[in-house]
Amino acid sequence: MRIRLIAVILLAFAFSGAPALAAEKQKKLPKPGWNMFSKDQDIQMGREYAQQVEKQFKVVDNRDLTEYINRIGQRLVKQGGLEQYQYPFFFKVVHEDSINAFALPGGPMFVHTGLIKAADNEGQIAGVLAHELSHVVLRHGTNQASKAQIAQLGAVLGGAMLGGGSLTGQLAQLGIGLGANSVLHKFSRGAESDADLLGAYTMAKAGYNPIEMARFFEKLQAEAGKSNKLVEFFTSTHPNPGNRVQAIEGQLPYMPRSDYNAAEGNLKSMQAAVTKLGPAPKPKQVAQGQGQGQGQGQGSQPPSNTPKPANVPVSSNLKVYQSSALSISYPDNWQASANQNSLTIAPAEGLLQGAIGYGVIVASAQSPNGRVNLQQDTQKLLQTIAQENAGAQLVQQPQSINISGSAAMVSQLKSTSPYANTAEIDTIITIDRGANLVYLICIAPEPDYSRFEPLYQQMVRSIRFK
Ligand SMILES: [Zn+2]
């Protein structure tokens, strides 16, 4: 059973991108949001990804260029007030024509030679760096990964996944990488506004005019409108929150007074040095296909060659999972990992690449109509699951049942197991909880299903709502 994003499909999203207002009050400086990763895991991940990036791109071996970018970066960190966040920031120049700079979680930053070439002044380079540094200290990448409804994330971060290996290797198995569509790098408009705001303060403190950041972003946006391929990656991963220049201008009166005295350096000679490097090499493909800019999608699932485990242990001792919404019993040798909208209960052997082979998913979705229509919403959910799991067939039509005093339906699908050459049975229970549809998906390979069915029935019967 593919599980990614199922939980969010029925959710009506509140749009959080706040438009810039004309009458400007002082905006509060943003803080890091909710995160399942620890700060150390951000740093570890950044370190591992940085190694991949350095294999894929040519790091420029030119002292003048390296010193130039480091001088700007360190000025932003030290004078701009980012030292307090205590990340091991470093700055490298990579030989790449596209107009971009990207920072990895935990601090490593790579500046494309294309950015140096495209800037009108040093302040514009500082603007992109300050914006990227703000994404790092606000932890936007891992914040978004935390919110991405990936049920096994808790198990990976808690070190519970089998096989060990690098953190990024395990995240790659869940489809979290560095590509354009990755949750780590596709920022929301809210995150963009926050990075603009903190980036602008950082610039002002460091002696750069914050307006240059907004001007440069608007210039990139205009180039994107002309289908300039060189700006595509940046503009697709940093969506325009709208009115960047106005939003920053409106906040200027509140920023530390500065005469914007950062030395105007020698951008022209740096641009000449870039030209001298000659044409940029083609980025190399790296293992795992997790490279920057490859548009690593979330939709494709590699054909599985993982054999079905011979034995999945099921303890007859049950323990109780409690949340603010419900409680449910499960075998005490299985793991329960929860995020905002879903709970996955599975044996370690049942968790694999972006999917679950054995286990139970409990999730909740707001009905788009504000009130659950059990039959309609059940059909919709079944369709959604069938879309996510190509070839899924309904083998049991929805039948009415009752769960813990609430109207419910039970249906069954047959689909392709994530284990090699194996079919799977998925029993789906949908429960009418007023405004929310609570649903359970009970998963096991078809040959084993009869062995797991009594356990799943016991788990479903044990549910209590609060
Ligand atoms: Zn951004």
Label the structural class: alpha+beta
Number of helical regions: 15
For the largest sheet, list the strands in their spatial order: 6-7-10-14-13-12-11
Task: Work out the helicity level.
Answer: 25-40%
Number of strands: 15
Task: Explain what the structure shows.
This protein has two domains: 31-289, no CATH class; 318-465, 3-Layer(aba) Sandwich (Protein Transport Mog1p, Chain A), CATH 3.40.1000.10. With 466 residues, the protein is an alpha+beta fold. It has a seven-stranded antiparallel β-sheet with strand order 6-7-10-14-13-12-11, sandwiched between helices. A three-stranded mixed β-sheet has the order 1-3-2, with helices on both faces. Strands 4-5-15 form a three-stranded antiparallel β-sheet. It has helices spanning 6-9, 39-56, 63-78, 113-118, 122-137, 140-146, 153-157, 167-173, 189-206, 211-225, 232-237, 244-251, 267-276, 374-388, 449-462, and strands spanning 90-94, 101-103, 108-112, 318-322, 326-331, 335-338, 342-346, 351-352, 355-356, 359-366, 393-403, 406-416, 423-433, 436-445, 464-465. Helix 5 packs across helix 9 (189-206), helix 5 (122-137) packs across helix 10 (211-225) and helix 9 packs across helix 12 (244-251). The chain has 15 helices and 15 strands. The radius of gyration is 25 Å and the shape is elongated. The two termini are 28 Å apart. It binds zinc ion (ZN). Zinc ion binds next to helix 5 and helix 9.
